[in-house]
Amino acid sequence: MRIALSAMLAAASLTGAAQAEPVEIGQIVTGHTYYNRPGASLAEHNADLGACAHETAFSVGSDQYERGLGGQPLRLGESIAKHLIWDGPLAGVAAVRVENCMIVRGWRVVRVLESDAAALDKLTGAAFVARLAPWITAANPPGELVRTWRNEAAHPTAFKLASRAAAPGPKQLSFRVYNESGGTEALPRKIDAEPTPSAGPGVLDPKWPTKPLPSADTPLPPAGASIIVVKIGGISNRYGTGIVFMREGSTPEDQPGLVDHAPGSFFAGTGFLGAKKDGNWFAFVVPPGRWRMAQSAFLSLCLGSPAFDVRPGEVVYAGAFNLAGDNLGPDLDLRQATAYLRGPGAAIIKPATYVNGSRGSCHAFPVTYALEIPGAPFEAGYQWGGAVPHP
Q1: Who contacts 115 (Cβ-Cβ below 8 Å, separation ≥6)?
Q2: Residue 348 burial (CB < 10 Å; 0-12/13-18/19+)?
Q3: Which residue, of 111, 216, 305, 372, is most buried by count of CB atoms within 10 Å of its CB?
Q4: What are the tens digits of pLDDT across the range 158-209?
Q5: Beta strands in the chain (DSSP E)
Q6: Which residue(s) pair with 315 in the sheet?
Q7: CB 118 within 8 A of CB 27
Q8: Cis link prior to 306 (omega < 30° from 0)?
């Protein structure tokens, strides 16, 4: 996996197909901004903002991280802007993780007009909260509506990721509202996202192959196993050179491979030099279960992504993806798969049945967002992204 991610990072300087004014999802909206959701309450605003900060907090655990926190209770704005990533270049990444989480939850980003911003800067405490609270819940909030949920990750040319994300500051008014209206619950010093394995260290059982099948000759799956086939085309500075798929556990934080010693993830992709013009095919022998699109080198889809079930003995086509096109995919047309693949496995291959809304751990470092396949159903209980009404 480390080698695969390094290969994806090598493609960071490449650009995808041009599109006018792609949406920036890699840094917070600059200027005096606040979050707005018509009909919501200030309490809902604070609850979602606190939850987003908690759920997207980096799991670091280093000495530098612990010294930066200093053992002091952290207020929301302080934890993001100062302590959480040590005022370094990743401060902006931590901030946009929270902002993207709010957007996926149905909140909109509104930029205040300069005339209103000057007046707001003079207010403090209860007076500031009283002024901004009605704006947070208004159907037509004062200012410019800048960002809202648009499923941008499904269209690689529709978004961009800043090379150095802008850090938050006092102009992010929702952080001020949170801190000055009672939302002062201290964030945890460290998120213990890794479960303790119940049967020794997370070492892969040697019966499982560590690499994809070497050719188009696809056998039947071994006993108790399945095969997933993926095609990856294109290279971009949004998705890099491939996609990581992960096996779901019982919760977003669970990593079942640590317990059953079977593969918990695979990387469908290649390095820049190995990328073929017409795309690269991959076939992986995996344990049965539910597999989700998890991340690329630069984007974590932990806030919601498509997933599909694989049963023992099945050969499932996860689709063809275009990392640099207008539509990421997947294209689930079996004709190109059956034209390429050979062997007994090719005779039983079937397309994946995707369900949107699979959640994963958001405590790793990439920018966090959600991705949905248009028209696919949502998992029961998922109420974010396209599963909720957005103005």
Answers
A1: none
A2: middle
A3: 305
A4: 999 988 887 777 788 998 899 888 765 433 333 333 333 333 456 899 999 9
A5: 23-24, 33-36, 108-111, 144-147, 159-160, 226-233, 242-247, 265-269, 280-286, 289-295, 299-300, 305-310, 315-322, 350-351, 355-358, 367-368
A6: 227
A7: no
A8: no
